[in-house]
Design goal:
The complex is a heterodimer of chains A (about 270) and B (about 270).
Chain A: H1 2-32, H2 43-56, H3 61-83, H4 91-130, H5 133-139, H6 144-183, H7 187-197, H8 200-226, H9 232-265
Chain B: E1 2-13, E2 16-27, E3 31-36, H1 42-49, E4 57-62, E5 65-66, H2 72-79, E6 82-85, H3 97-108, H4 113-126, H5 142-154, E7 160-164, H6 172-189, E8 192-197, H7 200-206, E9 209-214, E10 217-223, H8 224-228, H9 233-239, H10 246-261, H11 263-266
Parallel strand pairs in B: 3-8, 3-9, 6-7, 7-8
Antiparallel strand pairs in B: 1-2, 1-4, 4-5, 9-10
Helix pairs in contact in B: 3-4, 3-5, 4-5
Classes of the chains: A mainly alpha (about 270), B alpha/beta (about 270).
Amino acid sequence: MTTVLEDVGAKTLDHMDYVGRLNIQLWATLRAMVTTLPFVGNRYRWKESVRQMLQIGVDALPMVALMAICTGFILAMQGASELRRFGALHYVIDLVAVGFTRELGPLLTAIAVSGRSGSAFAAEIGTMKVTEELDALRVMALEPVEFVLAPKYLAALVSVPCLSIVCNVFGIMAGGIFMFFSTRLVPLMYLRYVLTSIELRDVIAGLVKSVAFATIIAHVGCLEGFRVRGGPDSVGRSTTAAVVKSTFLVIVADAVFTAIFYFMAKP
Amino acid sequence: MAIISIRDLVVEYDGRHILNGLNLDVEQGETMVLLGGSGSGKSTLLRHILGLERPKSGSVIVKGTDMARCSASELKQLRRSIGVAFQSAALFNSLSVEDNIALTLREHTRLAPSIIEIIVWMKLAAVGLADFGKLQPQELSGGMKKRAAVARALALDPEILVFDEPSAGLDPIVAAELDELILLLKEAFQITVIVVTHELASAFRIADRIAMLYNGTFSAIGSKNEIKASTSPQVRQFLDRIPENPAKALAIADYFEKYLRSPEVNS
């Protein structure tokens, strides 16, 4: 019994230590972000931020669009099969529009970015650690948090919400295609229904979530990279850990934000 | 006056003593070679000289400032006067060779891009790589990577130039070329050079003084001739290449002989 309690205590302390490290890293990055901003920051680091934005955002566009289209069809078809029985097929529009704007758009994007970029951050920083590049940065009087992490975080903060919007558009578009073929609802009418069913707070809730998800993905990916010890095998482990932990934390954060918005919206 | 003073330096990892009360003065303009076998503590000593780690007790004073107790900004300032060529070269693979060298100039100075370009060319020319600036680090041979690392270390005209195992992984001819380069740079730039190595030929070619590390302590410090004439058992063992524990080697040979004569093998 004592051993079990000791193990639980040790694990709890480990997790608290991890969260603490994440917070310290986040704070250090926020302080260093100024140097990566355009006009006021270092011009070369801003270029690096733009390069990262292309990698995180533009390169992920086809994947996110395809995921959104598939999920849009799935949601519309699953919703239609049940709602048709009650003669409420037109509620599919609300389901897809609100579902994507509040929930699925940011979540699908976060999962895609976590798999693509979170793992890439961990692998890149882990490799830099193994090959002494991080030490080289320090002895060149450059802080890895400023030089490596801040441009990635800034890029994630810009790219993930943009990708979420793209995801929303493609998901809702898929719902429109389904409605056209199942009920002959013309696209313009579908768009009007969509615009009446979505409220501004749905869009804001989705964007707030995507900013939080970007923070989780960038910081978990980078922290896993910084935690690499030893050789290349450790890089592989940290890459896997980055994807698993960031996906898990994204879903936890999603639940927390959904609960907050739900209770805030209650009359 | 000593540019680097190490006083009673003690380093411990998990209760295990790595460095036991080291004392050493490195004079301005001299080439100090830290010689020692694997696990003798020379890389650990180097990391403390560079301020990458903090000791358990003692001090490493570089240009009058204690690396272990100075502020982060003081440490950054000090590091600008130290150039380091790492064992693995530690060039940034995402940047071209010339961008690797320009990095510190762009980050720490307000020089115009055209001036930075000229300085980069000069540094590359100093190490014989003037025509290779546009290449990526992965396109260079081992010896060229090390020379590019030296060019990067020279970028800010450091007062102290540090080499970690410069000959490691190089053939004797390229290693000898690198030794000549170190001598040339020292003469041309009048800098203090610290070299960590276990290569005897290289150490005796470039050193003004040699500090011999054995099990975390200095077994001898002196000029090349003093070290060659040393009667210290640890120094003699290293210079005469005497195995650490010959009895073990005999025991293994004995074990194999017995195994080969055993009935299981001969049946």
